[in-house]
Predict the 3D structure of the following.
Amino acid sequence: MDTNVLVPQMLRDVLLSSAEGGLYQLFWSQEILDELRRNLGRAGGVAPERVDRVILTMQAAFPDAMVAAWPRSDVDDLPNDPGDRHVLATAIEAGARSIVTHNVRHFQRRHLERHGIEALTPDDFLIYLLKTRRNDLLTVIGDISSGLTRPHLTPVQIMRALSKVAPRFSTAAMEALR
């Protein structure tokens, strides 16, 4: 996961809940979590103690997600966008098949192919999960809905909330929920 897909709360909830439900294996590095800490506080306007709680909860829920950092010189040698080289290094180290990111242009196919990795938008990734694990994903969304109390959101309302960051998935999932 690139940091930018973990910032929007509802997208983060769906992605993390899907991993918790066993729909895919999640990986991150300390640098990705540090970047998340900065972005949630600055762009997301989340209070520092809440940011810490979110990250600690993520780490506790996914103790196997942490990937060891590469030496800075090795990261700097990667050919993709300099600001996202640490994300590619994490994916390579983890043996991941995909990087989920809003910045697919920072991960050009020619830089990823030799590592057997592809870059997917969260929209494309969630559509893939809907196609391959439809019932499981719909159960995850139902479970998220059941757990939300302030405010309570129905699965359709959750899909509407995702429409800005995953519009095709949102539409397809709303159809599947009917």
